[in-house]
């Protein structure tokens, strides 16, 4: 880890109000909450197609760059790589926050590296960053019911039952991001994988 380089937290999602509450946009939701907690404001970056907020988690805390790529999900790697290069962030200080079909609703899983599990945002990031060894906060959305197409499922709103719990789990995912930055991946995994 490089003390001088900031952490780059990438909330994955699709731009536009029509996508705002979709399962695929939990990364944007978590990024928005982290910005709110730190008193940061998103604005368009001058070099990459993304909304970006810069600052610190808290006074005296580590430097932080929050980003929401404004390309669609399957093209998000370009802006991520551009911003990582702009801020000289090593891959091991990049945290992607994303929806995960293979994890049950209400569960979080944290890891470094590994496969993309068919997630187009991660595939694009791995390709553009030139490796897979960035960190991931995987927000479980569960499998679609019945024979529903997984792509249609993630591009739909949370159910009424899920919406009642959504804010709580977005809050937990934001806590997990902060814990990774403050205490490292292993400590965060011990805390969040116990549930």
From TrEMBL:
TRNA binds at residues 19, 72, 74, 120. The active site is at 24 (proton acceptor). The record marks 14 as: Discriminates between blocked and unblocked aminoacyl-tRNA. GO terms for molecular function: hydrolase activity. Keywords: Cytoplasm, Hydrolase, RNA-binding, tRNA-binding. Its EC number is 3.1.1.29. It holds the Pfam family Pept_tRNA_hydro. It is an enzyme of class 3 (hydrolase). It is found in: Cytoplasm. It catalyses: an N-acyl-L-alpha-aminoacyl-tRNA + H2O = an N-acyl-L-amino acid + a tRNA + H(+). The record marks 99 as: Stabilizes the basic form of H active site to accept a proton. It comes from the Bacteria. Monomer. Catalyzes the release of premature peptidyl moieties from peptidyl-tRNA molecules trapped in stalled 50S ribosomal subunits, and thus maintains levels of free tRNAs and 50S ribosomes. PANTHER family: PEPTIDYL-TRNA HYDROLASE. This is Peptidyl-tRNA hydrolase. The gene is pth.
């Amino acid at each position: 880890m490089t003390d001088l380089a900031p952490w780059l937290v990438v909330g994955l999602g699709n731009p536009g109000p029509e996508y705002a509450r979709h399962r695929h946009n939990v990364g944007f939701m978590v990024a928005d909450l982290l910005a709110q907690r730190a008193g940061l404001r998103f604005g368009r970056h001058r070099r990459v197609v993304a909304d970006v907020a810069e600052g610190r988690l808290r006074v005296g805390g580590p430097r932080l760059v929050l980003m929401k790529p404004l390309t669609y999900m399957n093209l998000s790697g370009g802006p991520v790589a551009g911003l990582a290069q702009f801020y000289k962030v090593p891959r091991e200080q990049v945290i992607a926050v994303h929806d995960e079909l293979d994890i049950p609703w209400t569960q979080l899983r944290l890891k470094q590296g590994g496969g993309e599990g068919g997630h187009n945002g991660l595939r694009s990031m791995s390709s553009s960053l030139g490796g897979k060894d960035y960190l991931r906060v995987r927000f479980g959305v569960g499998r679609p019911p019945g024979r529903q197409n997984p792509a249609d499922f993630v591009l739909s709103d949370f159910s009424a039952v899920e919406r009642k719990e959504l804010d709580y789990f977005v809050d937990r995912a934001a806590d997990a991001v902060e814990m990774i930055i403050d205490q490292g991946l292993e400590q965060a995994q011990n805390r969040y994988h116990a549930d």
